[in-house]
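Researcher: I'm comparing several assemblies side by side, and this is the next one on my list. It has 1516 residues spread over four chains. Same procedure as the others: predict the full complex and return the structure.
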Amino acid sequence: MKGFLAVYTLLLMSVGVMAQHTHGNGLAHSHTYTRVIDFPDTEEYLTLACDFHIHTVFSDGSVWPDIRIQEALRDSVDVVAMTEHLEYQPHADDIPHPDRNRSHHIATESAANTDMLVIQGAEITRSMPPGHSNAIFIEDANALLIEDSLAVFEEANRQGAFTFWNHPNWTAQRPDGVATLTPFHEYLIANDLLHGIEVVNDLTISEEALQIALDNDLTIMGTSDIHGLVDYQYGIAEGGHRPVTLVMAAARTPEAIKEALVAGRTVAWFENTLVGRAEHLGPIVRASLDIIDASYGDDTAVAEISITNASNAEYLLENIGAYSFQSDLGLVRVPPHGRTTISVMTGEVLDSFELRFRVLNAVTAPKERLEIGHTVTVD
Amino acid sequence: MKGFLAVYTLLLMSVGVMAQHTHGNGLAHSHTYTRVIDFPDTEEYLTLACDFHIHTVFSDGSVWPDIRIQEALRDSVDVVAMTEHLEYQPHADDIPHPDRNRSHHIATESAANTDMLVIQGAEITRSMPPGHSNAIFIEDANALLIEDSLAVFEEANRQGAFTFWNHPNWTAQRPDGVATLTPFHEYLIANDLLHGIEVVNDLTISEEALQIALDNDLTIMGTSDIHGLVDYQYGIAEGGHRPVTLVMAAARTPEAIKEALVAGRTVAWFENTLVGRAEHLGPIVRASLDIIDASYGDDTAVAEISITNASNAEYLLENIGAYSFQSDLGLVRVPPHGRTTISVMTGEVLDSFELRFRVLNAVTAPKERLEIGHTVTVD
Amino acid sequence: MKGFLAVYTLLLMSVGVMAQHTHGNGLAHSHTYTRVIDFPDTEEYLTLACDFHIHTVFSDGSVWPDIRIQEALRDSVDVVAMTEHLEYQPHADDIPHPDRNRSHHIATESAANTDMLVIQGAEITRSMPPGHSNAIFIEDANALLIEDSLAVFEEANRQGAFTFWNHPNWTAQRPDGVATLTPFHEYLIANDLLHGIEVVNDLTISEEALQIALDNDLTIMGTSDIHGLVDYQYGIAEGGHRPVTLVMAAARTPEAIKEALVAGRTVAWFENTLVGRAEHLGPIVRASLDIIDASYGDDTAVAEISITNASNAEYLLENIGAYSFQSDLGLVRVPPHGRTTISVMTGEVLDSFELRFRVLNAVTAPKERLEIGHTVTVD
Amino acid sequence: MKGFLAVYTLLLMSVGVMAQHTHGNGLAHSHTYTRVIDFPDTEEYLTLACDFHIHTVFSDGSVWPDIRIQEALRDSVDVVAMTEHLEYQPHADDIPHPDRNRSHHIATESAANTDMLVIQGAEITRSMPPGHSNAIFIEDANALLIEDSLAVFEEANRQGAFTFWNHPNWTAQRPDGVATLTPFHEYLIANDLLHGIEVVNDLTISEEALQIALDNDLTIMGTSDIHGLVDYQYGIAEGGHRPVTLVMAAARTPEAIKEALVAGRTVAWFENTLVGRAEHLGPIVRASLDIIDASYGDDTAVAEISITNASNAEYLLENIGAYSFQSDLGLVRVPPHGRTTISVMTGEVLDSFELRFRVLNAVTAPKERLEIGHTVTVD
């Protein structure tokens, strides 16, 4: 009797989703989400979810490359790169003398008939300095089997690679976990041989790496560095997700993605934290959040508004504007793909007014959060 | 980046739903449903969810009538009747000498501006025989305050009431719980003064009451008889629902509903069991279930088909047809508002074939289940 | 007060519970909680969940008082007061001339054989000033039916009442929603006739009321002011909860609770926000959080520690200590009755070290959050 | 074998679990389960969950053997065998000339320091007849690289193998999906060279294979035949599970498991169906179900009893005893690791009485279900 068209539509999509609507600083309500990583495009760019650090049995990973494509399809990751260790081949007894491009080729075949992009890459695996680095957008990984550390960066760049420093906070190479530039890195950067740095790697995030990126104009990267299964490592069944780099690209092409990486237009997405320069993070957050349904109750000067969220992040907004709220004490949570209603005490009835928030889960520099403003127009 | 229009639509509806897709005799997967009671209309009739046995503070219930309307709106119950005990008024100290129509009038006001129908009713509350009975579609409950048990049925019928015997299996009046006709009931039935019987009341269901209904041409009724809160009594938050009578009515009007009740076109919906005469249960089950996407795999004689379910019931289907399945050993579960895929071994590739099931959760008589057939046309 | 034993008991009772374990600044994972309101006792006091503002059919509520006891039992609320409007009796046609103590007496009977305490109360219902106020711990509500507003406060205090100002931010009485003291209130406070103020009422919270409480030494109160059903108003099935006042009492007795209220030992619990003076909020937060399993990884100076949470609040901790973390950029979430693991970069291996957090969901004054420190001892 | 202790441990591990309690023929309530496969031991034997058909990159699977151990640990599978195709090596370009025991050896290393047993196996991969078969408990897979199909069975048996026919219903070898013995199979069976048959393989179950097992005294087997990821293939996150063989073994040793297989003491567990000979299925079902808390209500002859379920199966019980129930019309569902309360109308108050059920999800032969009786003693 009752219309369930919407439900039926969803059913056919076989996609589980439960909408959320909280009120002010609410407890996150129980919900079920798909694992889909989903951030909106900005006005200028496509927002592409990219994982540029992935291993398979062709170095020290535990799966065939086809599984990496299946995982990425389930996560709605748009772009991947298999980045096998060039120099570390623990499965060599079983997979002897592999072509260092083999993993990329199998992954590319597995991704045929999908719209996933597979970028050719490799991991340059050295003791510190320079530690580990990835080269992506390369032409031939075999040509990177060069003993001298500087020469391998030169060859990667000769191939047109975008290179980035992996897990500079790795305790196996930095026991204190503090990402720190070495003279070798400074040389690479000065000579435009190193272009990015992992601020996020697997289960870790590095404030010091973020500072290095900002100080040296390096692209901010977030990667999974997955060796086992994505589902196990990130608790996908419990709502977790792999870290990715959100790349703001002019098109869904390798060229456009590389251009964006070189230009530094990235945001790393780690657990519930977005990390990026304000000029990149701002557009993504603003594209995620919208304010709808602003109206005053009868005979009141309290405006009720709804903030919607078109992204996977749960935004934590600290009120830094002129007005206090009736719905909370200035900490507003907007659930992923949900919305929150807040009540703003504007003193008198206004046609429009200004809200201002510090976005606590959007980090632009160590200890600094993105600030956003929004002019609310009353309906 | 990804299309989430469907999700956004659902979001605005603030309705939680998680689609289910199982395979053959699958474990029920974890899911979240709305509390909405939802059975499809049949080809001939509307399927209306009705609760004709409800109490408030105006007899021995614990809520004001407005709560009964809120509960029913949340349950998507289409039709309710407040049926206060005429003779049992434990709140008389606080609510003295009440107008016996008062509860109905408040409920009617509360339901204004909704499409819920509120039918006037009362509970005739006697020791056995005749025990308790409801009269609905009455004109004035006060006029039913008559000492003689027969006279009250006559007056109710004079007002045009549809009457039914409440909880004939109630252990307070039948310690063994076995519904049994008395000569008084036989007289009422013989003289067309009693028209229905509760096969389902609250948390109980009665095989013997079902047999009495079938033997005496009484309408099969299922009601909540709620006194406290529906949410607590039926574990709504955990996925439970109140029992209702599904009335197959020609229109969404009191007249059409009464006509359907008098004609006996009802099915009781209790936990996961549907109880009704085959001629009424069949159309509802057939409207609930559909078979889509029938096709043979390449070079096989095994047809894969999907059975969809447009209702709240989880159908349990026992295969009684000519073919065995690859997907299960003949017990198929079709989740509520979900679907199940089965694989049928038809021996050779056929253009169409016949499936036949016993519907284990659709009861037509004691120990008897509805049987349905379906001709599958291969795409 | 209830602690994890209650949770374990619940498990054995076959009531759902799902513990959470997140990692740093994680997304809240999907989970199912009981509705039980549960904050630990502090070293000095019992922490009692109290709702001192409740209506029934005996004023303008929609349920009999027994439902209020059932709701409170399900919420694990320790103490309730029925606070019917003395002067506003919209059900007077049906419930004429009620004894103003009647609601309290029925509730008390309903709570017999439970360990719930029912405190006698009433709501003094006036236009502004002074607006609405509750008097609890009274002897006879009928004696408060006095026309003069001052006289009713005097009589309540003569009876030994604890009185508090209800919803000072109510837009029906303050269209701008801004809680503001009037001279009448100042008189009441100066003469010790008014002792508390609702910082939290139903779905609203008031920064200005909090400031008034701090400036005037009034007890901070949070109440539901429930008229309909708690389950509907607060979305209990979706994980919501009613607002309560956490009272820090020396014993589970009316006398001890009143003593605590007079002494101002309260914290209001609203959605995910705790509001109270630092000297009260601090002990509750510290009793909620514990640090366990601190250890350094082999050959690293990064300490991994687990923060456990024995309460219903999801704590949002901002790192304001000396060390940065590998697990997040300084925003740590500790899920309700769950735990979070963080990695602390202490520079070198230490036997013990100091962590310091701002607790973003624990508000001590407008724009001010509780700060806590914890010395971690490495295992 | 694992019992509730495992669940309790899981709780302490902060892994979600939600117990279920339904009432009669209830809708399955929303719930979250761990993926743990858990059936109780019987009075005589341990009940071990075994998966004897598994592939890795060493034949045509997509993961390294270590992932198979991780999956099995998460599923609480007690015993596994890697069964690589001897003759089908699609990864030979990358993994040339592998030792056919290599997969087993890596898996064994990965399972060190766990209590999982890894049994050595291989898949004999032929066209029909005899199709594919597994040999487990072998000594050297390389010695099975023999061209003649009969000779390979003879060699496997010389090594002491237990052998079974894989997916006799596979449409690639039997387009109609109907398992059918060939003369070659009859020869193998007659000469004790073939000992079991897969009634369950991956997503399929075969009534005809069950009949072949019963007619020829073959051991009933259920296996995953996993090539990709268990989590994806069986919808683990949505509550699914891999098929397994429950082996009733005298000890948790390879010898005892082999003895049980040779003796035919197995039950296959597929979706929600258990398949086995009545003498094996009966003890497992009886160990799963218990009746507790039988008592009559005051002044009634209706006994209320609780049926508990210590297993992963949701039991569907059809009442075939002498008494009807008040709680349902004879179809009782007992949720996994939950319980159900039913009300039995025994006519008069009895000290003890007999219940009898057909277990609809426990299949002993085509179209035949296990029947169980239970004497209820009233407390």
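Model: For your comparison table: Residues 1-23, 25-33 of chain C have pLDDT under 50 and may be disordered.
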